[in-house]
Structures are given as C-alpha cells and as structure tokens.
User: Fold this.
Amino acid sequence: MEWINGVTIGVVLFVIGLLTLMLRRDLIVKLLGLGLLNTSVILVLISLGYYTRGVAPIITGKPEQIYIDPLPQALVLSAIVINLAILALSLVFVMILMERYHTTDSVKIAQQIEYERSQEQAHIR
Amino acid sequence: MNQLLLPVLFFTTGSLVLLWPRYARLITLVAVLLSGALVAVLTTHFFVYGPISYTIGGWPDEIGIELYFDTIGLYFSALTVVLGLAVSLYLWSRHMQSHFYLLLNFFFGSIYTLIFAYDLFNIFVAMEFLTLLAFLLIGYPRRPYQIWTSLKYLILSAIGMGLYLLGVAVLYYHTGALNLGIIAELIAGEYEMWVIVSSALMVTGMAVRAGIFLFSMWLPDAYSFSSPVVAALLAGLSTKMAGIILIRLAAAFPIDFSLLILGCITGVLGGLYAIFSHDLRRIISFSAFAQIGYLLIGLGGSREAGITGGMLHLVAHGLITSLLFLAGGTAIAAVGGGSVSLLNAKRAVISPLARLSLLIGLLALSGFPWLPPFVGRVLLSGSIEAGWLQAVVSLISLTGVIAIVRLLPVGYISDRNSSLFSCDLSLESLSFVLLLLPIIFFVPLVRMTGIEIDLGINLIKPSMILISGILLWHLVLKERITGTLPKGILQLEWAIITLVAGFSIIYLMIALL
Assistant:
C-alpha cells in the first residue's frame, strides 16, 4: 500500500476540488472546492519534503539522523496565508452579490447581471 | 540593491497613504518619481557593468531569493515608470478614495517584485499578491457586474496558481532548487516524465494570468467592465508580468512546440472574436488575445529571436493598450457609451487629443509600420520559417486590421471647429502625451539599448496586409458582420472546463515532443 501517500491523496483532493468548481452551481460550495484545491497543493508540497523516519529539522548533534527538508514547510506558510486571504476576500464579494440577488446560484446571478447590463445598454441607446 | 528598494519604496508609500489619506495622490506621484530615479540609477549600472544580480540576505543560490536586473528588467521597469506617471496624472483631478491609492501603490510594488523575480516561489507569492490587488481594483466601484467579474477573475487565477504551485513542488522535489537559472542548468537536455509534468503545470498556471484564449476567459469582462485606469493597469502591466515569466520559462524548459500551438489557437480565435465585437473596449480586449499569440508563436519558433522580440512586443502592447484604455475611457465618458456606432456618430464631442491617441493606438494595434508592435513583430517573424506558420501569422494580422477598421473614423481630426492645438492643457491630456511620446519614438529608443532592427525589407508584407484588410472590410465584410460569436465560453463553468482542456493540450504537446 505504498502508493497511498500524501502526494496521491493530494492529487485526488485537487481533482475533487476542480470538479466541485466545475459542476456545482452554488457559489459557497464552489469556494469550498477552491479551498480544498489550494489545501491539497499544500499537502503535496509538504509530503514531497518528507522522508520516512526523518526527524524535525533541528540540529541536535546526534549522528546519522535524516532530517526532513525544512524549505517546503517554510514555503507552505506563505501559501496558507495567501489561501486564507483569497477565501476571505471572495466570501465578502459573494456576500455583496447575495445581498443584492438573494441567491448564491452562480448561473442565476450571471443571468441577472447579463439582463441588467442589457437594460443599461438599451437605456444608453 | 536597488532591485530591493523599488518594491520596498512602494509598500512604504502605500502605508503612508493610510497615515495621511488627504495627501494620497501627492504621495503616489512622489513615489512614482522616486522610482523613476531608482530605475535610472539601475539603468546606468546596467549599461556600465551588465546584468545585476542581488540575493536577499546572502543565502546560497539554490534557495535564496535572487533579484535579477537584465534587459527584460530594464524595459519593463521603464514601462512601469511611464505608466505609473501617466496613471497618477490621469487620476489627479478625479477624486478617488484613499484606499484606491493604497491599492495602486501596492500594485506597483508587486509589479517591481515580479519584474526582478528569478525565484519560482517568489514569483508565486508576488503573483498571488498581484491577483488579490487586481481583484480589489476591478471590483472597486462595486457595481454588481464588476463584483461578479472580479470574482470570476479570482477563482480562475487561484486555480491557475494552484496548478503552478504543484509544478513548482514537483520541480523542487527532483532538483532541490527554486532558482530558475540553476534549474535551467540542471534539466538541460533532459526529457524525463517529471520535467514534462512540471513544465506543463507551470505553463498552464502562467497562461491563466497572461491572457491566452482557453485559459484566461476572465479577461474580456475584466478589461471591459472595470474602470479605465484599472483596465489600463491590468492590460499594461498585470498580464504582461505573466508574459515575462513565460519568456523566462521558455528559456529553461522544452516547451517550444506547445507554445507554438497555443499561440496559433489564441491568435486566430482572439482575432475572430475581436471582429465580431461591436464595443471599443471589447475589441481591444479580444485583440489582446491575438497579440499574445504573436509572442507565443515567436517564442515557439526560436529562442534567441523569440526572447528579444517577445519582450519588445510585450512592452509595446502594454504601452498601446494602456493608452487605448485611458483615451477610450475619456471618449466613452464624453459620448455616453462604448459601442462602435455611437463613438463614430458622436465623435465631435470627444476631445481632439483623445481622438488622436485613439487613432494612433488603433493604427499601432493593427501593425502599422514604424509604430511599436510592428517592431516586435519584425523580430518575431524572423524566427518563423515553416510555411503554414507564416500563413497563420498573416491571418492573425489580417483579423487585427479588420477588427479596428470600423473604429478609424473616430480619429478624423478634420472637423472645422476643433483643432488639435486648441484643446485645454489639462493633466489628463498630459498623461496621453506621456504615453504617446514613447510610442512614436519607440524605434530610436530601442536602437539606443543596442538591439538591431532592420525595418527596410520588412515593410512590404505588413503594408499589403493593412491595405487588403481595409479593402476586405469595405468591399465584402461591412454588411455581413453583425452578430456576435457564442458568449457561453466566458461563463465561469465553461472557463474552468476550457482551462482543463487547455492543460491537457499543453501536456500532450510537451509529451509528444
């Protein structure tokens, strides 16, 4: 069962997130899918830096120890913060849209907006 | 050292805006002027000592963040200074809130970070920061359609950057380095599975940001619904940064053929959509797809000519689209709408300088000899040899000409009562002049930096295409092009599906090679 590791699980989660974004119409569910997608990338990054039976990258002076690569862990921190910012900001924008149209259905919102735009254009002419 | 100072300068002034919101526009203008001085210092260093490399904190090259100033850095920091100056002058008499200036300062800061970035993860972070800023800038006036557009932009970009980060992870696992120069040496001539996977992932991620058909279907809405200044910044700088990264990636990875195919797709489809659009800003946005097609075809054709020519082409297109969006914004505000028929009918209301800017910008976009994109195209077409590719490039040029022919009447300045020199000297017109000058003097400026351009023999074909496009429009197509092409592809769900399809195209193309 060696193939069940962080990398394969991460890739599966990435695909699930992508499918959620494609197939579900609810904007909140879409954003959950986006969160899943971004987190799965972090899982892949962390797993690629991990060695079996490795120890935390703190030099203790004991001989013949395998240290886990510390760089992906440092990188992942900034990626996590960015994902948080993206989710928070997009939720705010979904909230504004929801207040106006009373729905989170992306197709309905797109139709409404298209309709309003065409009305505006007709008004100009 | 100055490479580090430039982003830091803008992040500091951005915070100063929060402190003294009343002086926001003054602080922005001073910051842009200071950055101009810093860029001038860097440029003199560059001409004396050659490319300048600076690693933050003195870390080893594999993992340290390197900031690299080369010819690309030279051209794009000059573009950023010019655009920054033009934008801050254009905004001077429009009373924007101070948050807008905060976002603007941070925007320029992250642009400078990206111009000098040579570290794959640094690119990711700066790109994501740029995404967030652009997202807020597009949605700034808070109309529902703008908010929806910026949400679409954010979701698509986040998917793209997720794919990019996956590619970086694969690459780091196999090479243990994040610096592009070191990676290029390590993978030279290798075509292992992981090279294919990681380069396909990274190219897809950047393609979403660079404005390539199938990938960045957020682009037409974002360009045409946001405010003129934001559209100018997005078109002039934000998408061009992804273009730089694509150029840098093309120098390191075996992605020539996939870029070639992508270039053909984006060029032809973008050109067709531009012909079937009937709104000034829509036409400019779809022709942006066509323009990036030249870059990709050139990069795919040959690396040496492709890199120089592609860079010049990006800078030129950035200058022109931002001029068009700014002047177009003025024109649309004066007329009351952006449709081609309305602009042509009421052109007397538009200020003469805005009309002249529109005329020059549109002519340049169609590949008029001597004006900027023509120069890049000359260099790029030198790298294309195959006959079918020549045909595709001519087709793209032809669609570009046909798309803009309808708008040329806007530029007539022959109306009796308005001469060009009678217009009032507002700061807004100063910003147009500021952008017009480098456009008109592009060729001498490029020659000054030591790039040889031979314009003489390349005049015949572009002129033929220009004339045949105009004739074709007036004799054949004028009455026939009325409808629009299917708009479904611009919807969020379809945009994601086309993105995934585009990724599989890239992967197959790299793998087949």
